[in-house]
Amino acid sequence: MTARVLDGRATAATIKAELTQRVQALADRGVRPGLGTVLVGEDPGSRAYVAGKHRDCAEVGIASLRVDLPASASQDDVEAAVARLNADQACTGYIVQLPLPPGVDVGAVLELIDPAKDADGLHPTNLGRLVLRLSEPITSPLPCTPRAVLELVARHGIDLAGADVCVVGRGTTVGRSIGLLLTRKDVNATVTLTHTGTTDLAAHVRAADVVIAAAGQPGIITADMVKPGAVVLDVGMSRIVDPATGKAQLRGDVADGVDQVASWLSPTPGGVGPMTRAMLLANVVEAAERAAG
After folding, report:
1. Nearest to residue 62, comparing CAs of 272, 287, 275?
2. Catalytic residues
3. Considering 34, 67, 174, 185, which has the largest number of Cβ atoms within 10 A of its Cβ?
4. How far apart are CA 243 and CA 30, in angstroms?
5. How far apart are CA 24 and CA 189, in angstroms?
6. Max CA distance (Å), the chain
7. So what's the pLDDT on residue 195?
8. Which domains does the chain have, with CATH numbers?
């Protein structure tokens, strides 16, 4: 068996084409969505990620509002940038790029974001709504990466109803929030949340129909841990420096060989990553649509 590919790049391109049409429909009503970013410091990975978001905006017709602060920025400086975007009517949604410099209270900054402009979908108010709404429609931004996982699977015709899903990783971005989406009645999966401290992690993974690897530990999911025919999504990503060349390489949580056991596999890169960026755009467009009535 060789796993079929959950192609995030092609699926994200389709979603962007759909969003372009929705942005044009808003433009016909005199509305233009705007995505803001707050970037503090010169971290190369963060700068590249933010630049990619703004390229995506240009591709679908969303306006870009970029706020770059030096690494020496204080708590007050960062909070002032957040306040400006909260008040800016041209900004439909925005993100504060993490990590922030040492000494800046990340939690305090993120809680200052207007929940209606929370493009990442991780504000406590929006996560609280997701907790409370088991079957009701959700009219607030959803966490981008969990939403990306579900969208990627659905657009490849995979039904998760009744599936046993093992999530590996307990981070806020994926692990702690994806179960909330998977267990909604419109998805109806059963979720086991595991992490690097789980006793006999392999046994939990091996019992799953679907594995979502989001631990940020390169190669933590090996072929012998995966049930034959399982669907595997590689979400975690790490930068590994090759000692011979000094160059950084991206490595996922899924080790080589899993593609010979799984029925479907999302690659790293090219799987969930492009979909996450597409879902960020979707959150911004949807916020503009809600504001426009």
Report:
1. 287
2. 53, 97, 120
3. 174
4. 54
5. 36
6. 57
7. 95
8. 30-114 (3.40.50.10860), 143-274 (3.40.50.720)
Tell me which amino acid residue 105 is.
D
20-75 tens-digit pLDDT: 999 999 999 999 999 999 999 988 888 988 999 999 999 999 999 999 999 999 99
Coil, strand or helix: which one is 52?
Answer: helix
Cα angle, residue 45 at apex, residues 40 and 46 outer, rounded to 5°: 30
Residue 132's φ and ψ, nearest 5 degrees, are -80, -25
CA distance 187 to 251: 29
Scored b (16 or more CB within 10 A) or e, 32-70 reads ebbbbbbbbbebeebeebbeebbebbeebbbbebebebe
Rounded to whole angstroms, the Cα distance separating 57 from 38 reads 15
239: tokens are: 């930068």
Tokens of 120: 């990442």
Look up tokens 């060989």; give the residue.
257
Enumerate the H helices of 88-154 as residue ranges.
106-111, 124-132, 144-154
For the beta sheet containing 93-96, the strands, ordered from the edge strand earlier in sequence to the opposite edge, are 63-69, 34-40, 93-96
